[in-house]
Amino acid sequence: MANALIRRLEAYVRLSADDRKALLLAAGEGIRTFDARRDLMREGDEPRVVNLILSGWACRYKTLPDGRRQIVALFVPGDLCDPHIYILKRMDHNVGAITPVTAAQVGRDSFERLISERPRIVQALWWHELVVTAIQREWTLNIGQRTAYERMAHLMVEMFLRLQTVGMAEGNSIEWPLTQLDLADATGLTPVHVNRTLQAMRRDGLIELAGRRLTILDMAALKSTAMFNPEYLHLEHEGAHLDANE
């Protein structure tokens, strides 16, 4: 499961065998499991560990006092939930499991030792965080400018590519555990609007949703609908000049 992190980081730079070994060692630390719909970390908690998602889906979310929720990020295997979160005195957001989740909780000392001894990993993490920020910008654009249909199409393509990068796509199909309420909270729509949008996408022959799996029937049309430009994911090994020596 920890290989997902290596595949994620090697989408940006190439790591040495020793770098990979160090990551596998860190990913074996403090492994915990969380039931679906349980929080890994809560707003107000003192963050002491870096969470690495090994299996399952999780999300970063904020809530209003009346209980309304906004999902501001999705995490899948290989994702780090804020690599330097432990610098904060208190959490200013929540991280919750959407499905059952297995996470490595890497302690501050271990994480700081990893980045002090492995400069190539530091460079890879810079890329990782730049991509996280780019994804956040794209999500803001989705909510501010794209229609409901375009938002849903964009989210589906993004998650497909992110899962494909870590070897978790089967053909044009991926796991899709998001409920209509999750999708509403991630896209700024109502559950009713989400339902109508998904029905329209099915009628148009773009997708198939069955058994918690999403199959993209026409990838080119879905990308065109979303006006999807994959450059913000930076998956073209752009850090080639940072390649490690074997």
Automatic annotation (TrEMBL):
**Where does the record place a coiled coil?**
none
Q: Identify the Gene3D superfamilies for this entry.
A: Jelly Rolls, Winged helix-like DNA-binding domain superfamily/Winged helix DNA-binding domain
Keywords, in A-Z order: DNA-binding, Transcription, Transcription regulation
What is this protein called in UniProt? Crp/Fnr family transcriptional regulator
Q: Name one GO biological process term.
A: regulation of DNA-templated transcription
CDD domains the UniProt entry points to: CAP_ED (cd00038)
Starting at the broadest rank, the lineage of the source organism is: Bacteria, Pseudomonadati, Pseudomonadota, Alphaproteobacteria, Sphingomonadales
Which terms does the record give in the GO molecular function aspect? DNA binding
Please report the stretch or stretches of sequence annotated as the HTH crp-type domain: 146-220
SMART domains reported for this sequence: HTH_CRP (SM00419)
> Pfam families given for it?
cNMP_binding, HTH_Crp_2
Query: Does the keyword Transcription feature in the UniProt annotation?
Result: yes
